[in-house]
Amino acid sequence: MLKKNNFSKKTRKGAVLKVSREHYLRDDIHCRLHGCTKCQQTEPCLEPGTVLVPDTNAVLHQLDVLEHPSVKNVVLTTTVLDEVKHRSLAAYQRIRGISSDAAKRFYVFSNEHSKDTHVTAEEGESPNDRNDRAIRRAAAHYKEHAETCPEEFAVILLTNDAENLRRARNEGLAAYSVHEWAKRFGPSPDLVDLLATISDAVETAICKEDETTVFEAHLSPAEVQGGLKAGKLVQGTLRISRENTQEAFVKPRDDPEHPVFVPGNLMNRAVDGDLVALQILPESQWQTPSGIIERPEGTHLVMDGTQDAEGELEDMQERTQRTGQVVGIVRRRWRPYCGILAANSNTASPNLFLFTAKEATLPPIRFRSQQPDKLVGQQIVLAVDGWPTNSKYPIGHLVRVLGPIGDVNTETEVVLLEHAVPFEPFSKAVLDCLPDATWLAAEQDLSRREDLRHLEVCSIDPPGCTDIDDALHLRDLPNGHFEVGVHIADVSHFIKPNTALDQEAAKRGTTVYLSNRRIDMVPGLLSSNLCSLRGGEERFAFSCIWEMTDQADIISTRFCKSIIRSRAALEYSEAQARIDDETDQTTLTDSIRRLNALAKIVKRRRIEAGALMLASPEVRFRIDTETHDPVDVQMKQLHDTNSLVEEFMLLANVSSAREIHKQFPTCAVLRRHPAPPPSNFEPLLKAAEAAGVTLSTTSSKELAVSLDMAQPEGQPYMNTLLRILATRCMLPAQYFCSGTVPQTEFGHYGLASPIYTHFTSPIRRYADLLVHRLLAACIGADPTYPDLLNKDKIASICDNLNFRNRQAQYAARSSLELHTCLFFKKRTTHEEAYIIRVRKNAIAVLVPAYGLEGRVYFDAADGQAPELSYDENKMALTVTKDDQHINLRVFDKVKVQVQVDSSDPQREQMLVRLVEPSLPGVTVQSTNTDAAASPKKSKKPAKMLQNKSSK
User: Fold this and answer.
1) pLDDT tens digits for 686-712?
2) Is 828-934 in the same CATH topology as 2-195?
3) What CATH number is given for 828-934 in this structure?
4) Structural domain boundaries in the chain
5) What is the tens place of the pLDDT at every residue in 788-804?
6) CB-count burial class (<10 Å; 0-12, 13-18, 19+) for 580
7) Which of 332, 295, 300, 312 shows the shortest CA–CA distance to 240?
8) Average pLDDT of the residues in 617-623
9) Which phi and psi angles does 888 have, rounded to 5°?
């Protein structure tokens, strides 16, 4: 049935256009009610009982309710889904995910294409009113069909829109607000706690406490846009200091080199990550960051890492700075937060409690719960609904309970949730894309591949690695040159574009390595079996093969799809033992030795070109296989073979980047590392100057040379400390589409390479998979497809990959923090440490033995506060107590006590105290008793989970 819809609309310039649209209506769209006599359907979806028809606002704001296992038999109209998709893509993807679960019995009803339910906009009717009418018509349609069923159905329209609710009831429909339905008819008492607060009026109604804090109202969106256009306001992302949550800064979009300081009293309900509008205060009201480090309320280890993608500052400079106040929120960055029920959180209102988030920058959140006893001692997840002007705290609602505080599995789930790491099991649709576990190569596939099974190929990886994605070979050529090959798992053979498996891998972006587990990007059948280049097994590979001289000069480069059979899957230490064993003259060992010699030449040339050799403390925990607790800690051991693999992987990545950019100049997936702005180097230069060391940061080569020369006599660890601080000056590397960035900005600062990409790890990085597809098109092995050549699509994928990669790094650090706390829970140790930062009330120290950084505080929290004298220029702190004093300077070697503070069992944290130099009443007493220095080895088997991210 064809239906024409004619209407007029006004353009932005005021012109009136007549629009005519044709709409095809069908009479075969079934209701899917079990037993319906009006529909000739073979697969009923909706079972007898209550059938819910939610409107758009109910879906947008009450997803946690709809997601609850007890909520079933839900009809989602296409009117609602289209509106949700238009207003929130994240909510749309989430509701589609819920509806794909067969057990939930959610049915998408195409009401807009059914001749029985389609409605045409009436004259003068707004689009919102027309859509509400369409949803009511769909609910009425279901009511009519339910009356013909032999078994009983109750059709309920869910809406929180007062006018839609009134009209529905006038039309004879059973209609309720989501809150009323959950409280009166909800299938589970848990639903009441999941209800989101959706208006300031409701928030005010539940906040009956006397509020002493009143915030200024935010400007309207129109006022914000007007102020930005007029230059009266500036816009940027609010970043709260990691050292003091009462201080924040904003890098204006039009002037990122000059951040604006925002003290806590001027944040006006903005939280970390919000895109805000700022009003710059008169210069007479500009303020100076305090330089005071807050004591953390929870676990707080500062592990090594570069700045985030926003270029977050390590700390604000201690001088008067341009100061602003938040006057509007352009875009909120609220997300579900993990945390606990705050101690003594009962308020004057019944069933109203406070939630303390794990995210230290977030204030407490007020929420309702009908069953608080179930929340005590548990990690829970809360969503924020709003923050009214008359409330001291944001308002939220419970999402779910995770498990007991301190339980390693619960805390690991918190790490994954806090860093938005997708870790749910792979769906049936994804698993259906996999080949059979007994897969064997077909002759057709073999005929299109180069047979390299005769080569002496081997892999070299960390201990316990099962996702082996790279292998190498070297052989002599008749002309006296070498053939060197890097062979990478051909994951693209198994993951075809636009399949459910491909879409899931693109969403996850990367494999995440935690201290006790690995979250795979692709199912284990591929990552640990069919794609893993295991020793002695035939595997498909994508090979990069060079002809090289004995001085590592590249004569030619070629790529091919191949089949290989690895002779051995070696660990770094095993490969090193082969090199060092002069009696081992086998062909494989000889090739490894010569690869090692070539790698040293390649590395020397990289360094001469200006590549940086930075440092970071890296430790690995040995995990008990039964208790999953850490039983030992080890520093990462580096061998020549680590560098051997790294150099050839870097070389393969550079060769791949050149090839795909040559063939696809506008849609190549590349990776760049921007040069840090000069301001980023200020903390490093200040620390080096205080230690009497001169560094040059005018270029990566100048920095590399000056770091090599920074070898003060009698201070052997100084160079490592400088390199660690230099690492923290770097900006993060980023994936990008070549057609969206000028070629002058392609360069990789850290590697001193004009072009670079990732080709060598497609099992664990989606970017590498895209590069494989581009390379396959370059050599004619596989065809292209539209999305691969669409630079906007590739740019969007790269944005997601950058986010996922950053979150994976943060999750890995948080997991290391968690296991460090678990390791020290029953241990106290005295260890050597080095001061790497000095502040007005604390010093930050690095403990090399455990690769952790902690803070030693000198304030009233240690008892009677000592007198502190801080010299910012010399980066020194003098601590005086009872006419005695100690001087602490950056890079000084000290001794500290490391233990876990369990005074609050719900919020354990690492506690670092100064032992030497000693000052009575300030430092702790030195002792030779050390329970952690020689930890007892567990009699139970243990395993090491190795992070491959360094490869």
Assistant:
1) 999 988 899 999 999 999 999 999 988
2) no
3) 2.40.50.140
4) 2-195, 431-616+628-669+751-812, 828-934
5) 999 999 999 999 999 99
6) exposed
7) 312
8) 66
9) -120, 120
